[in-house]
Amino acid sequence: MADAITPRKTNYPEWYLDIVQKAALADNSAVRGCMVIKPNGYAIWEKMQRGLDRLFKESGHVNAYFPLFIPMSYLAKEEDMAEGFAKECAVVTHYRLKAEKGKKLAVDPDAKLDEPLIIRPTSETIIWNTYKKWVQSYRDLPLLINQWCNVVRWEMRTRLFLRTAEFLWQEGHTAHASAKEAEEETHTMVRIYQKFAEEFMAMPVLVGAKTEGQKFPGAIYTLCIEAMMQDGKALQAGTSHFLGQNFAKAFDVTFKNEQNKEEFAWATSWGVSTRLIGGLIMTHSDDNGLVLPPRLAPLHVVICPLGRNDAERKPSIDAAEKLAKELRDLPRDDFFGYEPIAVKIDNMFDKQPGFRYSEYEIRGVPVRVEIGPKDIEKAACAVARRDVPGKEGKTFGIALSGAAVHIEKLLRDIQESLYKRAKAFRDSRIVTANTLDEFKTLFPARDEQDEVGAEPLRFVYAHWDGTRETEDRVQSEFKATIRCLPDDGPKESGTCIFTGNPSARRVVFARAY
């Protein structure tokens, strides 16, 4: 049996790292702050890629690829971006090493680059320098381009998937002929992220604008999706930015409009990353291991034939193979990405059944089927659902003749149930603070993350006067940030609970990853 997973209530950060390790999702790399994504973790990312990529292409976007290296002068052209990313940049200054026998490798001082290169922290600058060649007329617009790639941000405090020095992501970069069109794109993409989070990840999110203090460097405004993890902390799961004409002006991207007048293009950018895998873990998993929504599970069903000897096992294996084929042959639809249901037959008869079940439970396989000699006598099987652990989630006596249809319906039910459960938890921990004293009780001056047995935190709706000074003060005193100005939140005006100044609306405060 696998080693026990640290319970969430005992040590939430350790529980998270245990899930990552024991579910074989990722390892730390020899390079500080970087990770090795293992096959099980990468398979989840591939599922995310396929789902998102289909949504992007259905909305008219296409994929391209741009260089990993960005001349330092490009970054300097957009002042806000240069300032925002300066401390996170990895810089290449030389192109060759000295390798002499009997001596250690060293940088060749004669091989210094004419201009240092930044390993991309994000690609706006290199892409807009390229768009200058591609855009001359309004007929060339819009450009609706996305790329799947890696980026590097030299983080000092890292955690697998949630914050690493190198991570995988997609970044969309679009150019438009009008501000209206670009803003519509910005809102469209944040809603696509919401759709993916809620319908694929089964992770409910708040949608809204970031504050000036939290927006993307170089953006006019930033929209985001914010999810609540099981410890009550917020996770920024995706962002969409209206960039105005800032990058077009920085890189002189102009076009002739329908009146044959020259003007600058309008820009957006948007992205999500492998951080979503961390969000998936912390939204659904339990003390027994990983829990995956079926739409993103690399393996949907594991069938475990049972028996004490070859004579008992053969009928179980035959029944397992027949059921596996029936599952794979079911009509394909959007729910499963037009792919067959992924089924594995587990024949590890050298291991005890309990060990076999535990391995798939830890890895988050949504459905487990058991077929033993007694089941064969009844032409039936036992079916266990991962989202309901123990005996409560296990049903005996499912007829083999209808098991494939039963399991397909069960997978859809698990997806829906995970979303409802996560939303109920999130909604139960959304509260309102009308006074500073109320706010202080919700964000006590201690580190909830490291306190054993700490109560989950909350999303707190409170009035704020709209100033960066107050926002910074709250972050400093309470370790809480304004996550967003929620689209669906209360819009009534009031009084800022921190300063007593007028407030246009309530915003969402939380501690965050």
Describe the fold and architecture.
The protein has 513 residues and is of the alpha+beta class. It has 14 helices and 27 strands. The strands form 7 sheets. An 11-stranded mixed beta sheet has the order 3-9-10-16-13-12-11-24-27-23-22, sandwiched between helices. Strand 20 (380-385) and strand 21 (394-399) form a beta hairpin. The longest helix has 26 residues, at 403-428. The radius of gyration is 26 Å and the shape is globular. It starts with 11 loop residues before the first helix and ends with a strand.
| Structural class estimated from helices and strands | alpha+beta
**Separate helix tally:** 14
Shape summary: globular
Strand adjacency order, main sheet: 3-9-10-16-13-12-11-24-27-23-22
Q: How many strands in all?
A: 27
Strand content: 25-35%
Main sheet: strands, sense, barrel: 11 strands, mixed
Give the terminus-to-terminus CA distance: 32 Å
How large, in whole angstroms, is the Cα Rg?
A: 26 Å
Rounded average pLDDT: 95
Which ranges are low-confidence, i.e. pLDDT below 50, for 5 or more consecutive residues? none
